[in-house]
Amino acid sequence: MATGLLAYYGSKTTAVTTGYSLVQYDKNENLKAAVEKEANLGLKGTDYYLAQKNNPSDSTNYVSMQRIKRSTGWYRDTNGVWNYEEQHKGRFWWDIIFAFILISLWLLLYMIWHYLERNRKDELGRVSLEKTVKELELKTIKSHINPHFIFNSLNSIRALVEENPKRARTAITELSNILRSSLQVEKLETVPLHKELDIVKDYLALEQMRFEERLKVELDIDEDTLEQSLPPMMLQTLVENAIKHGISKRINGGVIRIISRFSEGNFELIVQNSGSLDSKYKEGFGFKSTRDRLRFLFNDHAYFKVEQVEGPSVQSKIVMPAEDAKNLAVIK
C-alpha cells in the first residue's frame, strides 16, 4: 500500500512540477493516431466535420468522424479545430470501486497469509514446547528411579529375607510395582490420583523399611478427588523431596502428611513434612520440572509453591483447575 501511495503522489507531483504526465503523453499519441486515421480515410483537407450539422445519421463523413473519435478520443469541431473528449466518462466511481476491491483483496490475502504464518510459528513453538516437556518428564521419571533408592531398597529387602521372609516378598512386590508404574506412565499425559497414590504408597512402604519408626505417614485424601487427573509422578516428586530434604535430615525423623481436596473450583494437592525450610534453599530439578509441566498443561491457571507452615512443617502445594484437569485425556 505504501508503494502504491508513493507511486500515485510521486507521479502527481511530477505532473504538477513539469507540466508533463503519462496522461498527457497518452493524449498526444492518440492525437497523432487521429490525424493518421483521418488521412487513411481520405478525409484530410475536407470539411467532413461539418456533417455533424446536417442530418448526421445518413452521413458517411459523420460515421467516419465518430470512428476516429471512438478510437482516439479526438475529433474536429465545426471550426475544424481538434478537440479531445474523454471516452470513459462516468467511469470514475467505477474505477474507484474497482481499485477499492483490488486493495481489499490484497489486504485479505495478506491477512490470510499473516494468519497462516502466525499459526505455523505457533504450531512450531507448541511442538518444541511439547518436546521440551516430554524430555523434562522423562528426566523426572528417571530421577525417581535413582540407583540410591534401588540399592537402599534391595539392601533392606536382603536384610529381611532371613528375618521376615513374608515382609521381604511384599517389599519385592512394592519395588516391582514402582518400577513397572514408572515405565508405564512415561507414555501418559495424566493419570488419576488413585493410581499416583498407589505408587506413592509403595514408595513410602519401602522407605519405612529404611527409616522404621522415624517415618510416619498421614493421609488426608478427599474421596471425591481420587479420579482427579494430574501429571504422572508429580506427587511422587513432592514426597521424595519431603523425605530427602526433611525427614532424612532429622535425628528423630518426622511426619509426611499428604492432603488432597477441592477448594473454590480448584484441586489442591499438598505434601507436608516435619522440619524447617532452609534459608539457603534452592529449587532443584524436581520442583523446576513440576512448575514447567503445570505451565505446559494449564498455562497460568495452575501454580506450585513451597513454604514454611506451622508445625513446624515445610509445605509443598500444587493448585490446578479441577474442571480443566478432569477434561484432560486420561488413560486408566
From TrEMBL:
Pfam families membership: His_kinase (PF06580)
GO molecular function: phosphorelay sensor kinase activity
Keyword Membrane applies: yes
Residue span(s) of domain Signal transduction histidine kinase internal region: 137-215
A GO cellular component entry from the record: membrane
Leader sequence residues: none
Record-given protein name: Signal transduction histidine kinase internal region domain-containing protein
